[in-house]
Write a structure and sequence with these properties.
single chain; two-stranded parallel ribbon; 131 residues
Length: 131
């Protein structure tokens, strides 16, 4: 199962629901808190875009929500054709972007800032170019 909603869209609640249903669900906070200490793999994927690395990152998971997992939903579906996709939506991309800009994209320094800038430049700008 893959939630293809962006962060700040109820992803923690969605993760909890999927875990209640028996899925082992990846969430972006696991990267920040190094739950499974796979940040070295994220760095490797960031620089090399290697599918084997991406598979290794998510090897122990049966679901994912939030960034960065949500941007790989097409690959996950290709690798697991029977997977279910849950699409969560906001009123508009602009509503989401305004909210995200005031909250999750306020941090611009350090490791977290670099990750967020990468996500912003590679994902948000493709969704809401006028952001």
């Amino acid at each position: 199962s893959s939630g293809i909603n962006a962060e700040y869209g109820g992803t923690r609640t969605q993760q909890a629901a999927l875990q209640i249903l028996g899925y082992k669900c990846h969430h972006m906070w696991e990267i920040f808190y190094q739950v499974h200490n796979r940040n070295h793999l994220w760095r490797e994927y960031y620089y090399n875009n290697n599918n084997d690395t991406l598979k290794a990152i998510f090897a122990d998971y049966t679901a994912t929500v939030d960034y960065p997992g949500c941007i790989f939903w097409e690959k996950f579906l290709e690798w697991n054709p029977d997977a279910k996709i849950v699409l969560s939506v906001r009123d508009s991309a602009e509503v989401w972007a305004t909210s995200a800009r005031k909250t999750i994209f306020t941090e611009t320094k350090g490791r977290l800032g670099r990750i967020r800038r990468w996500l912003f430049n590679n994902v948000v700008m493709s969704i809401v170019p006028q952001f």
